[in-house]
Prior knowledge:
Elements: E1 20-23, H1 25-32, H2 37-48, E2 64-65, E3 72-77, E4 80-87, E5 90-98
Parallel strand pairs: 1-5
Antiparallel strand pairs: 2-3, 3-4, 4-5
Amino acid sequence: MTGIPLIPGRGGLLSPSALQVRYERSFIIDLKLISTSLVRDRIRQFVFSDFFETKHLQYLPDFRPMGATQIFYRFTLEEHLICIEVTGQIIKFVRVLPKPDI
């Protein structure tokens, strides 16, 4: 994937299964506010279970850094943007927001 800096870790990339994962209160609140239960359940299934089977963060759909930062990244799931913070060996889910119409 061009344009996406590699995140340092084993083999140059991070694997979620080898890291500590946390969930910001704002993420949990956003998740509860998703009105469609099917979408909410799919996102919940992914972030609390399937995410840990992801081989590398860069393989997440539409994965890219947010701005010039090397800490905050986003990816797309079920027409929602999911923001994560990557610091050291910790991945923190920060927000989940509807993808804006462009």
